Amino acid sequence: MNDEDMAAGLDALVPRLRQFVAVAREEHLTRAAEQLGVPQPTLSRSIARLEAELGVPLFSRPGRSVKLTRHGRLLFEYSERTLTTLAAQLRLLAEETDPARGRVALAFLHTLGTDAVPRMLRDFRATHPAVRFVLVQGSADMLLARLRAGEADLCLTAPLPDEPGIVTRKLDSQRIDLVVPAGHRLARRRGVRLAEAAAEEFIGMPPGHGLRTISDELCRAAGFEPRIAFEGEETATCRGLVGAGLGVALLPALAAIDADPEVAAVRITAPRAARTVGLAWVADRPLPAPVAAFRDFALTYRDRLLH
To answer: Which pTM does this prediction carry?
Structure first.
């Protein structure tokens, strides 16, 4: 049996099982038909068709009532359990897609979790207080994998992916600074060409992180390959390693860095150092009502997400 035949068989079987369970509970065809809202002859034919397809009698018919046979009792036990589970799952699905009370699975970079995403969620829930969120953080590659697999509905990431089937919208740009130890030779400079740091040891995120991709591309644009001394999963870790004098790093301009006395953030004058942060979703996947509502709300943050 191919997939289409199996699907057609299931489409026909589920309503018949519902009818079978009703008859088994009532032990009376007429009462079961009234409960289901179908004519009694139609219900009788449906039960007979089910028995013929299964090849076993499901009911004995003493007088005006009906009684489950041994095979009927076996089917009833599992059918009732299956239909109860199915009904619960359908209720859950309805809740997930409810415009007012549904769920949004939002994936985003760690660097957006300290301010941008909490602010956006707070503002959205001012008008959608019952919408629930599942928050997923990680590297750019991991977030996009979750998006493609349907485990995330929307993805806030940088750099924006350029691949078939993924829709992206720019929301904001964020300056990338050269972060050095407080006593470093470049610490007091107002601006620096990135090529001046070519001889330094760099601290960066592991491959697969969006910021690592951006950093490597900036260094190549400046004419050198960075020598990576340490890798950290989060900007706070990278900043701490810089503060300990273990290297320099290319990090987004953040208030936490400006307030850290152990490091100095120096603007890069060449090449242009910035990252584009935006929203991504799968093109041919219909968005449930709460997801579409949050997407449209997020797009209003263009040019103000990071400020």
So the answer is: 0.72
Q: If you compute the radius of gyration of the chain from its CA atoms, what whole number of angstroms results?
A: 30
Residue 182 pLDDT grade (very low, low, confident, very high; cuts 50, 70, 90): very high
Across 32-41, 214-223, 298-307, least confident range? 32-41
Task: List, as one string, the DSSP characters of 152-178.
Answer: -SEEEESSPP--TTEEEEEEEEEEEEE
Contacts of 233 (CB under 8 A, 6+ apart): 110, 205, 206, 209
- Identity of the amino acid at 31: R
Give the three-state DSSP class for 11: helix
125, burial (CB in 10 Å: exposed 0-12, middle 13-18, buried 19+): middle
Long-range contacts of 65-74 (CB under 8 A, 24+ apart): 65/27, 65/28, 66/23, 66/27, 66/28, 66/29, 67/27, 68/24, 72/24
Q: Which pLDDT does position 4 carry in this prediction?
A: 46
